[in-house]
Amino acid sequence: MTTVLAVCEQRDGALRKVSSEVVTGARRIADGLGAEVEALVLASGPVGGADQLGGFGADRVLTLTADGFGTYAPEGYAAAVAGRARGGAAVVVCSASAQGKDLAPRIAAKLGTGLAADLTDVMVEGGVLMAIRPVYAGKALLKVKVTGSPAVLSLRPNVFTPVQRPKAGAASTAAAGVPAGRVTVKEIKAAEAGALDVAEAPIVISGGRGLKEPANFKILEDLAHAFGGRAAVGASRAVVDAGWRPHADQVGQTGKTVSPTLYIAIGISGAIQHLAGMRTSKVIVAINKDKDAPIFKVADYGVVGDLFEIVPVLTAAVKSHA
Amino acid sequence: MKIAVCIKRVADSETRVKVAADGKSLDDAGVKFILNPYDEFAVEEALQRKEKAGTGEVVVLALGGATSQETIRTALAMGADRGILLQTDRIPADGFVTAQAIAAELKAGGPWDLVLFGKMAIDDYNSQVGPMVAELLDLPCVTAVSHLTVEAGTATAEREIEGAVEVVQCPVPAVITTDKGINEPRYPALKGIMAAKKKPLEVKPVSLGGGAIEVVEMTPPPARKEGKIVGEGAAAVPELVKLLREEAKVL
Ligand SMILES: Cc1cc2nc3c(=O)[nH]c(=O)nc-3n(C[C@H](O)[C@H](O)[C@H](O)COP(=O)(O)OP(=O)(O)OC[C@H]3O[C@@H](n4cnc5c(N)ncnc54)[C@H](O)[C@@H]3O)c2cc1C
Ligand SMILES: Nc1ncnc2c1ncn2[C@@H]1O[C@H](COP(=O)(O)O)[C@@H](O)[C@H]1O
């Protein structure tokens, strides 16, 4: 029975949400190929949440452990996954998360095959693996045929919504049997305790030069809080370059690409390089005093006017409905 | 300090993307091509490290068509010492094919103290050629580096991960892919542009295999359905909230 490997991700011993997205994508491919899904977890010990992966379609959940695997060990992880893939996997699926963008190319090169990266859709057509990749900052989509064996893929975060497809999820643990490698994580400096990353938040409240000064971003943080920990605050490049917000919050071509359920662009004109980072959001709201601002062309819902009047009223309305 | 920097010629970010007649690639009529923005950081990093070491050579390498010579000249104008064009008529869709050709050239021209790439190319968004070359050359590699120090044979690199910054160490020589923040790229001065004309630029034709990724078609993104202006000012908020709850169902 051929296998589709779903490479999961943990941090501090807990499974990250992208893992259920990867298993969901792997399940779709496996159904198309008539294969089984093996979820692969790399850690230094048991990982919290691994038992949920059966619910998303994992027939088996294998945790490969090694001493240095508690934090991301690029060379060790790549060797462990490639070794497992050589055992008969037809497809290896990773997340295009920060870790996945580093790991997937290493796995593909070790297996001597290509990598279809940052996919927004994947399908099996007549037994052939096809995928959709945004290119030119989302201004075009490539439909590609992936013929490597195994084929290596990475899925864009927040696009493959986890779906319940209950399978056995038979769990087992084994020693990875490979060294952690020459590249080691010395420290993880948390940006802010529990700060939700804009690339993974279900809701993103983004601010631009229209906020006039850094202190005014508090208005957006209040709106984000009104969504109860499900919203992250994003920024345009203009305000990041001005030093008002960290580069980690920048949405756009030279920042992050986000696909939240709801994206609210406040005081952002909607330059093509900004749109590149948020065009795949499911619902876009724009608040801008200039009714001709380009952002209104991609927004599903627009409110024209002064953000300093509008946003506090919106925050109150969201809070009262919470 | 012998440093290699791989650079790519890409369409400018302002480009209006039009699909070519083959239905699979960009129609480059009237398109402005530039040095990939992330590769500017890589070239700058190489130049600063060579200047700090006081001796050494910065070699820039591009795989592409004859027009990639302009991109190499840009890097030479910034201060790189010599360029190599691995000439091919079409850049493959499969980054691994590109990586194999680059790795072969780097292996022949090595050993290197440092091999630098951009985090990604802003045309194909593959984010893969650097780490793939590192794998093929069996060199340690850290990707998307926004801060780098190298001391006593060890590189210490910072990279952004979701909600945090990862501090990663590895021995040098190594492969590093560069992200915004690692440095401030210099603009080529007129003197540099003039000097670049006389710097060596080797053209080496390469023949490439097909690879595992075949483009079937390129299409514009699905048009977002026409949005609507809900209203003006704070008075529009109740209607907006109602639509978000009942129509969009996101509240
Ligand atoms: C190679 C390259 C890469 C780039 N990458 C990125 C990227 O990754 N991300 C990114 O965002 N940009 C990027 N840019 C920059 C982009 O081109 C724009 O310059 C930038 O997005 C503009 O930011 P902004 O919308 O905040 O500012 P502006 O364009 O100045 O827009 C401010 C908006 O606020 C509105 N406004 C002002 N006051 C109020 C008020 N009181 N109430 C309501 N509305 C108000 C104005 O009407 C205006 O529309 C890049 C550019 C280049 C060349
Ligand atoms: N054709 C090419 N020639 C030289 N370097 C390249 C080429 N394609 C990609 N690279 C390098 O690999 C990095 C990542 O590109 P990509 O993997 O295509 O996103 C780029 O920033 C370059 O440093």
Structural account:
The complex is a heterodimer of chains A (322) and B (251). Chain A is built from 8 helices and 18 strands. Chain A has helices spanning 18-33, 74-85, 98-110, 217-226, 237-241, 272-275, 295-298, 307-321, and strands at 3-7, 10-11, 14-15, 36-43, 60-65, 89-95, 115-119, 121-125, 128-135, 140-146, 151-155, 170-175, 184-190, 203-207, 231-235, 262-266, 283-288, 301-304. A 7-stranded parallel sheet of chain A has the order 7-11-6-1-4-5-12, with helices on both faces. Chain A has a 5-stranded parallel sheet with strand order 15-14-16-17-18. Chain A has a 3-stranded antiparallel sheet with strand order 8-9-10. In chain A, 62% of the residues are buried. In chain B, helix 2 crosses helix 5 (190-198) and helix 3 crosses helix 4 (129-137). In chain B, the strands form 2 sheets. Chain B has a 9-stranded mixed sheet with strand order 9-8-7-10-6-1-4-5-11, sandwiched between helices. Chain B has a two-stranded antiparallel sheet with strand order 2-3. Chains A and B meet through helix 2, helix 3, strand 7, strand 9 and strand 10 of A and helix 3, helix 4, strand 7, strand 8 and strand 9 of B. Strand 13 (184-190) of chain A pairs antiparallel with strand 9 of chain B, so a sheet runs across the interface. Bound molecules: flavin-adenine dinucleotide and adenosine monophosphate. The site of flavin-adenine dinucleotide has 26 residues of chain A, from helix 5, helix 6 and helix 8.
Strand content of chain A is: 25-35%
Sheet/helix structural class of chain B: alpha/beta
- CA-CA gap between termini of chain B: 57 Å
Distance between the termini of chain A: 48 Å
Largest interface by residue count?
A-B, 95 and 83 residues
Spell the H/E element sequence of chain B. EEEHEHEHEHEEEEHEEEH
